[in-house]
Structure formats: C-alpha cells, structure tokens
Amino acid sequence: MTAKHITAMSLAVAALALGSGLVWAAGQYGPGASDTEIKIGQTMPYSGPASAYGTIGKAEAAYFAMINDKGGVNGRKINLISRDDGYSPPKTVEAVRKLVEEDQVLLTFNVLGTPPNTAVQGYLNDNKVPQLFVASGADKWNDPKKFPWTMGWQPSYRIEARIYGRYILKNFPNAKVAIVYQNDDFGKDYLAGLKEGLGDKAGKMLVATQSYETTDPTIDSQVVALQGSGADTLLVAAIPKFAAQAIRKVADLSWKPNFFMTNVSASVKSVMQPAGFDKSQGIITAGYLKDPNDPQWQNSAEYKDWLEWMKKYYSGGSLADVNNVYGYSAAETLVSVLKASGNNLTRDNIMKQAASIHDLKLPMALPGIVVSTSTTDFAPIKQMQLQKFEGQTWKLFGEVISGSGS
Amino acid sequence: MEKRHVIAPATGSPGGAGGAVFGSNSAQWISILALVVFAVALPFALSKYHVFELTMVMIYAIAVLGLNILTGYNGQISLGHGGFFAAGAYTAAILMHRYGVPYWATLPAAALICFVLGVLFGLPALRFEGPYLALVTLAMALATPQLLKYFDTWTGGQQGINLPKPVPPHWLEIDRDRWLYFVALMALLIAIRIAANILHGRTGRALIATRDQPIAAVAMGIPTARYKTIAFGTSTLFTGVAGALAAIVIGYVSPEGYSLFLSVSFLVGSAIGGIATIGGAIVGGLFIEFVPNLANDISDAAPWAIYGLAMLLFMYTMPRGAVGTVWPWIGKALMRMGPHKIE
C-alpha cells in the first residue's frame, strides 16, 4: 500500500466521520420528520356509529395547534393528519396505509376503537411503524413481545374490574357479589377482570351473573333477578343509558347493595343526573381522568388551563364532554414522548422513548395517577382512583390502586 | 312500468347499453384486449398503495355487478347485499383461520355458500315486490352486524378474525399488493364473462322480460319465480366472492365492516355506473372507492354533504348511470367512424 493510497483512505474515513457528524447535528429523522415538522397520522370515527368519539380527534388537533403556537416540540411543528374511518375496519386499513405509504407519517397516534386497531396492528408492526396510545379499552395492547410497535394508553376494562374485585376481596371478604354486563367484549372483560380480582374466592363470592343486549329495551329484569339471588354487592358494566336504568331500578326495589359502576358510565351529566342524584348516593367507581362537570375540579388551576384551551382552540367542543379531557391528556402524553426523543426522530427512538416514560403527571388526570412504561410494560395508565358519589360529585377515597399483575 | 324503462331502455337488445361490452364484433374484442393489456401493465406504474386501491375498486365492481344482475336486469331492489358480502368475507376468514384453507380455495366455497344463501333468501323474497322487497333486504342489512356478533364462537364476535397473509407464488417474484391485484383482476374478468354469458342469452331475456312485463312474461311461458330465484342466487354469488376477496386483501373481518352503509354504497355504485349494464359496475366500483375519500379531502366538516352532491350531480347529468348514458353515445360515434356496426 503506497502513501498515496493511505492518504486517500484516511481522507475517505475522515469524510465519512465528518459526514455522519453532520447528520447527527441536523438530527436523525425517520419518515415524516424534519427540521421543521413532525408529521403524524390517525383515524377517527367522525362519521358512523361511534361518531360521538370523533371529538377526541378534534381535541387532539386543537392541543397540537396550541403546542405549535407555543413554538412546537424542539422547534418542530406537529402536523396531525386525522382521517375519518367511520369505525369501519376496512376503511381503517385503507386510511392507515395511505398515512404510512403516501403521507409518510412518522407514527400513528390514538387510532380509535378496538376493531379498527386490530385491523391495522399486523400491518403497522410488519412495517415497524409506531402504533402509539391506542384508544381502546381492550386488554390486548400490552403485548410488547408479540407487537413491539403497539402501545395502549388508558387503563383497560379488565384492569378496572380487577381493581373492584381486589377492593371487594380486601374490604368485604364475605360479600355475595352479583354482576350485570353488556353481552359483548366490553362487558365480558368486566366479568373476567372481576373474577381475576376476587381470585380463588371468585367461585364462592360471585353468586349471580346477568347479561343484557344493547337492543334490549331495559335491564330492569336483570336487576330484579340479581336482587333475588341474595347478593349484597353489585357491579354494573353497562353503557350510560342502561347504567342510569340500573341505578333507578336498584333504588325502586329498595335494594341497598354495595354498588360499583363502570367508569364508562361515571358521567355526572349523562348518568347520575338523569338517574337522580338521590338514587345515586354511595355508588363507587374507579376513575383516572377529571370529569369536567364535577364541581370539585372547577376551581383548580389545571381545570382553568383546560377551559382556557377549550375556549381558544376548540370553541366548538362541549365543555361537558369528558372525551375532550381524554384527547387533551392523550395528546399531552405524545408531546412528552416527542420532547424526550429530542433530535432523534426515528421510529426506533420514538418507540424507545414511549417505552421509558417515568411517572409522568397529566394535569387532567386524577391526583396521584401517573403514566409509566417500560420495555416490558406497554400499558401507560394502569392506576385508578376509587371514588364514591356523594351529593352531586365524586369524592375520592382510599389510595390510588394499580390493576396490573394478575 | 314506465319508470323501469327510464332506468334501462335497452330492454333485451344485446347491442344496447350493457350489451356493447363483451359483444361479438372484432373492433370490440380489440379494444377489450387493449384494456386488458393496460390493466396488466398498470400496477407496475403505480405505488403499492394505489395498486391496493385499484384492487378494492375491482372487488367493489364485482359486488356491484352482482347487484346489477338482480336490480338492473331483474328489477328486484336489494338493500341487503352488504350481508352477502359479509357472508363471503366470513366464509373466507373462517376457512383460512380455522382450517388453514389456502386463500384461493375459499373463493369457490364463498361462491357456493352465497349462492345457496341467495336462493334461500330469494324464495320468501318472491312474495315481495319493489319497495317491500327493499324493506326485507334492509332488515337483513341491519341484522348482519348483530348476527356476526351473536355467533361469536365462529365469527370471533366483536374482535373479528385476522386472516393469514396470502403469499404470492415465489416463481413470480412479485409483491403481495400486485399479486392480489392480479387475483382480483382475474376474478373480475371471469365475473364479467359469466355475467355477459348469462345476460346476453336466453336467461338474460327472461330476466328482463320478468322485470318489464311480468304478466306478459308468464303468458309467454317464462317461469318467473324460477328466474327471480336464479337472479337472486347468481347475484349473491358474485357479491359473496367479492366479499371473500375483500377479506383476503384487507386481512381482517369484523362486524363493524359490514354495516348498512355498505349495502347502500353498492346500490349507489350500481345506480351511478348504470344499473342495467355490465361496464357500469366498474364505474360503480370507482365511485365507492374514491368518492368518499375525495369528499373528505374537499371538506373535513361535511364530507357526506359533498358525497350527496356528487351523487346528485351524477344522477342529474347521467340519469341512466355513467355507462348507460355515455355508451350509446360512443356507440353512435363509432358507427359514424368505422365500418363495424354496433347495433
């Protein structure tokens, strides 16, 4: 090897080193990310049977608009492309493929619904595109071994039901428990979680189960049957309309069970008020977000920030809709992951950062609830706070309970 | 009866609106050959995503073609074809997922099952005419998602079924999206050929006679009940195969994918393309696939208003559907140009 060769080679090596150094300085980018922009995508049911949830996507867009007004994340503006899938999985597949292949988004964020997410989970994992903070209460998004690119966000229904089971087991070990649940995956997750929470004693403690169909006119007969079983503890896993019916029926029967209500139907405005505040006293639920209708929060700085943001960036949204708290909080979680990713906006690093959130506090989450993840734990929120309905509001009691583990 | 003539004036004449597609003269065969060559070359000029979109267009076209046989040629209105689409989809999903049947083998199975279902459904439907039949089929469309949830040991309930991914033959060295495009293209060509054979022959004339002049048809000795049932079965066979293909391409089935809106989409696609035509099915497929997305791009706030507007515009400017309106005009132009007679 001549001196000339060596010189040439060392120059080449130096150039390479310099080149990679330059790349480092400018930031490392995956698709959709640049010095000025972070492009992300999602699908939302703006039309169709689940369109009530569409407000989540609008709230998230409004949250990112606020962040962008404040200068963006590390100087980059967030560009959210949010497409309507009408809650129809074939449409989700099409829209998500378009987001990934045509729009070239860095990641998908908070795609809404269990079936739509199930439809694209394989595709996103095959293509190594982060499927972050899935908007679904199903229990299957925390599976980092099989789906390392998929991560949930909210506590699953099953985790919530486990919390009720554990609470009952600890405080009322001789309780006779009854459950009425919606006869689908949502309801069945509560039945499964409750059994898990009660553990070995489930067989003895769970004395009666009843289910209803969403097409049933009422669930009165199920409630009557459960009372007849001699149960002294009741868990209602029903959507708001049926939950309000159950509250009324229990009161009309002068039945006084320890009454547990799914968080899905914990809205002061759409369940407790129509059922009657007098009939709702003493009901227990587990929550993780602040209900914007609940007067106890309305003087807090966090609520006032939220209110100001709603008025400025999402004036069309309802101040009574907890989904707007949900979107606000989910978007905030993503922003913290993007911030932590710094100038390394590759899909790999996004997933790495998403899997290393430590005790992140969200202003509109209940006090004590934190977001945390690890490489083996893809369930960001798994704590809930028990609360009892007193007067016209939910009173927090006891400690924050974790529903993880089995 | 008058209204039906407006929808499809080409009563029984093979050279009319639909008849011009896949007819017998050589000019047509050359143009068809050119089209096929174009269709084969097309996916290599497009991105995988656009290839996927075109695959869905062809699948919807097969479904609309099925509906055209029933509604266009036989005058029976169905708002329930989404249900048969779902039946085909779940046939493919269950066979592939539970029994490891290869994807291509699920297509004849879906065809058979949906034909039988269609005939069974067609029997009681014989008692209903026009709007009443529409209502019966509407009930079916509404019931489909709930039935799928009810039989959850088979259908996977709300969670649905993830289908294994079809693998293209390795000697072809082609990616999955392009391979599935060709599978759909083959299916569409076969479907068009079969539909043309049925509709331009004796059966087609009997179907049209039953639609336009049921009393005269009976008087001529056409067993109208039998033909109506055949029309139903053939129609649902096509739609069922389309459903199976869609499930294979999408890779996932769940009840939410088969709502009433799907059935309505088929009817809209059918009317937009030309309800008593074969070529119209392709225009219908294009409409179903692209117009909702276009509407969304134009206006986030009111995409369905745009969709409705597009529908009105189409129906106002082309009352017999795109192919029903445009084709006779092309036919006349061709006649003036060349020696080949179209009519």
Strand-helix topology:
The complex is a heterodimer of chains A (406) and B (343).
Chain A: H1 3-26, E1 28-29, E2 37-44, H2 54-69, E3 77-84, H3 89-102, E4 107-109, H4 114-126, E5 131-132, H5 157-171, E6 177-182, H6 185-198, H7 202-205, E7 206-212, H8 220-228, E8 233-237, H9 240-252, E9 258-261, H10 268-275, H11 277-280, E10 284-287, H12 301-313, H13 323-341, E11 344-345, H14 347-354, E12 360-361, E13 370-371, E14 383-390, E15 393-402
Parallel strand pairs in A: 1-11, 2-3, 2-4, 4-5, 6-7, 6-8, 8-9
Antiparallel strand pairs in A: 10-14, 12-13, 14-15
Helix pairs in contact in A: 2-13, 3-4, 5-6, 8-9, 9-10, 13-14
Chain B: H1 2-7, H2 26-41, H3 48-73, H4 81-99, H5 103-125, H6 130-150, H7 152-155, E1 161-162, H8 176-199, H9 202-212, H10 214-219, H11 224-250, E2 252-253, H12 260-273, H13 280-298, H14 303-317, H15 321-337
Antiparallel strand pairs in B: 1-2
Protein described:
The complex is a heterodimer of chains A (406) and B (343). Chain A is of the alpha/beta class. Chain A folds into 2 domains: 196 residues, Response regulator (Rossmann fold), CATH 3.40.50; 147 residues, Rossmann fold, CATH 3.40.50. Chain A is 43% helix and 18% strand. Chain A contains 14 helices and 15 strands. In chain A, 50% of the residues are buried. About 2% of the residues of chain A have low confidence. Chain B has 343 residues and is mainly α. Chain B has one domain: Orthogonal Bundle (ABC transporter involved in vitamin B12 uptake, BtuC). Chain B contains 15 helices and 2 strands. In chain B, helix 5 packs antiparallel against helix 11, helix 9 packs across helix 11 and helix 12 packs parallel to helix 15. The longest helix of chain B has 27 residues. Chains A and B meet through helix 3 and helix 4 of A and helix 3 and strand 2 of B.
